[in-house]
Amino acid sequence: MGLSVRVVGRSTIGAGTDSTPGWIMRIVRLANFVAPRSGGLRTALEELGAGYAAAGHEVVLVIPGERPGRAETRAGLVVTVPGPLVPGTGGYRVITARRPLARLLDDLEPDRLEVSDRATLRWTGRWARSRGVRSMMVSHESLDGLLRVLAPRRMPVPLSRRLADRLNSATARSYDVIACTTEWAAAEFHRLGVPNLVRVPLGVDLGRFSPVRRDPVLRGSLARPGERLLVHCGRLSPEKRPERSVEALRELRRRGVPAVLAVAGDGPRRPALEALADGLPVRFLGHIADRDRVARLLATADVVVAPGPIETFGLAALEALACGTPVTVAAESALPEVVGDAGLTAAGRPEAYADAIERLLSRDEADRRAAARRQAERFGWPASVDGFLRAHGLPRLIGDRRW
């Protein structure tokens, strides 16, 4: 092959031979349900984008917002497209206008398309195929689980599964690759025998989230001497089941365990949770945008509670482990395979969560904190970026550098 130079719009984005491992690609990524106060999804988008850029690729992220905009970030160019608010979600927006988005994609001329929304952006797989663009859908949620949790009336499992199977089959046909972050998330595609499925775990910033972030001053502001500090870190929305953390605290207090709970996060369930927590030692801290503050909080806790039943990976739980803090997780979710022996599972009921928390607290503190950190060290972002690049059919990130 001879020398190739590709020009998109007014900028040259790559030069090399088609067979050269260093060939620069323009990776365009689409995501809905991203808000200024988003948690794990926003973190994953930023870290993967920064990793792609560190590998030499040109990266564009398209997300919804109140008004149009463009901003250069460490994760590449972020293009904001106006999208309406989704009622009852506490600030999430979606891109609903297909023709303008299709025109934007035509203008961007991606070499790779990566989509993080099976619900409203699945049509972009057909757009990519019609243009000869390799495409990947990243499954950040269990569609079967979402249908059961968010349906106006509780949807029977057979019905939710049939509907999820139909939608997942259509998604698998539309994209070249379906990427799932855990075996749990991949199960609904395995059930269909999807041939283009890959599993790529997400990662954690092992430098920022570290046991050295433990903060005695912060602890003193949240708990008195002798009290056990529990932390719930996540969006306060129905699918996350934050009420389980409050009810677990109630059960622990009933048992005479001197525990307190700090809730980091915001969302549509907050007023109901504040009412539920009346009379209990619960501190609602709101959304914490500063990731260093989040790290200090997680490192200072004795146990972190992650009760979401349809979590497909759970970055907050992994960040807690990186801080040396064990986690109690929902047995129904993907988190048991993420936390391993560094955490314990609970099956829904407040008593089960209280049992798991007490068992974790009964372990030697140095041992439980060391085990948590060891488990987190299995999930670095460079390895995750490598996995996603391979899923895109691209060379891996060279070395183990941070970006």
UniProtKB/TrEMBL annotation:
Keywords attached to this entry: Glycosyltransferase, Transferase
InterPro entries, sorted: Glyco_trans_1, Glyco_trans_4-like_N, Glycosyltransferase_grp1
Protein's UniProt keywords contain Glycosyltransferase: yes
Domain (Glycosyl transferase family): residue spans on this chain: 223-371
Gene3D superfamilies: Glycogen Phosphorylase B
Gene Ontology molecular-function annotations: glycosyltransferase activity
Signal sequence bounds: none
Glycosyltransferase subfamily 4-like N-terminal domain location: 39-203
Entry superkingdom: Bacteria
Protein name: GDP-mannose-dependent alpha-(1-6)-phosphatidylinositol dimannoside mannosyltransferase
